[in-house]
Design brief:
The structure is a homodimer of 203-residue chains. Chain A is an alpha+beta fold. Chain A is 36% helix and 27% strand. In chain A, the strands form three sheets. Chain A has a four-stranded antiparallel beta sheet. In chain A, strands 2-7-4-5 form a four-stranded antiparallel beta sheet, with no helix packed on it. Chain A has a three-stranded antiparallel beta sheet with strand order 9-11-10. In chain A, a hairpin with a 5-residue loop joins strand 4 and strand 5. The first copy, chain A, binds a DNA duplex (30 and 30 nucleotides) through helix 6.
Chain lengths: 203, 203
DNA sequence: CGAGTGATTGACTTAGATCAATGACCGTGG
DNA sequence: CCACGGTCATTGATCTAAGTCAATCACTCG
């Protein structure tokens, strides 16, 4: 339900303690495709990208992970990494060693369940975000975001970050977002109150 | 790696056999938000939508599941459904009962692992598709698709369905896709060979 | 043999990207 | 304490890529 890529709360302390923190310089490679998989990572600070490089050198970004997000979970179940990970900015990551995680998942079925639940929730949230991107009109995309993220009263949406960040989440330029938001407010559909948006009427 | 939402291969026969198939008429509701969660579904045929309805009656689509895809996995870990599911077309779904699935996941750690691995792969694939939608230019979006989905030789992409379906996957009108593909071919970047695209040079 | 759908291409329109500029804030270093 | 550099918020002007409407042709199917 929450869009938050709520990272690693499912991890028992036992595993969290064996995590290995590593600091990356901007541009530095964390792992390469083909490297033996050591486990999955959590980005503690900065930004790390997963990249697939084709033989002509062109690269395609598979994921851009920022602080709090998690990286390469699937590598837990694979012996090698299938893409490159490189730091886009200076960054700090935490490695959760494969063997430790897997054996813990196996030993404690509660942890296994929590892990699966977290992944299932992520799948749900990702599908929702993807579905939103299928909406062509900026206004309807915003409406989708608002109704999906409305609080319990169904009328109040708490903005998590800056408007620019929201624009990125929606796949709009920030200018376009400002404009549409302004129009929606002018037409009485919403009301901005600081970091909150009130949904008033709907057309 | 494969973009396929490869559904239920992880399920042991034991569970597959207790699945309950159900036929839905177009427009029929499979479950409502707040209903006690019975398990998750696989869409065998037709199309089913997950919908969140806000109090003013506006609805936001959270997911559109077509044949072969899976629905509401997260409900395995929740006591009630959190949205409505309604058939967009006539449809056939298969219900995997929660209790049976959960106990099997718990009993057989191999199954649990396979389930988690499937979810992790789905998360990866979804993130990749979402990342692609961040690319504004149609051409670059197509390039992203091609490099991500290139076969082992890195130069051959097998199209899974029709070009129209690809257009939907890319979030483009099919006309736009035809045009850009035609231009790319004219400029020698790719070569279409039936249901295959050869990547020739890259600009 | 029509009906329905995909593939393709042309013409036209427009929503939203881009480029620009301004004002409000904010931390910070002298 | 204040000037300065940086980022966010906001709005205007302009441009274009891609959507929409439309028409044609090729196919498949009952």
């Amino acid at each position: 339900m929450t869009p938050a890529t709520s990272t690693t709360d499912w991890l028992p302390a036992a595993i969290r303690n064996v995590a290995i923190e590593r600091r990356l310089k901007s541009g530095q490679t964390l792992f390469h495709a083909g490297n033996r998989s050591l486990g999955f990572y959590e980005v503690v600070g900065g930004t790390v990208r997963l990249i697939r490089v084709d033989r002509s050198g062109r690269e395609a970004v598979l994921q851009t992970a920022v602080a709090g997000e998690t990286l390469a979970e699937a590598s837990l179940f694979s012996s090698v990494y299938h893409c490159d990970a490189v730091a886009l900015t200076e960054a700090v990551v935490r490695l959760y060693p494969k063997a430790a995680v897997l054996s813990e998942l196996q030993r404690d079925s509660e942890t296994g369940k929590a892990f699966a639940a977290m992944l299932a929730r992520q799948v749900m949230a990702l599908r929702t975000r993807l579905e939103r991107r299928n909406i062509y009109s900026a206004r309807d995309r915003i409406r989708h975001y608002l109704t999906v993220n409305a609080g319990a009263d169904g009328r109040t949406v708490a903005l998590t970050g800056t408007v620019k960040q929201l624009a990125a989440e929606l796949g709009l330029s920030h200018e376009a977002l400002y404009r549409v938001l302004a129009r929606m407010e002018a037409e009485g559909e919403i009301k901005k109150l600081g970091a909150t948006i009130k949904i008033k009427s709907m057309m």
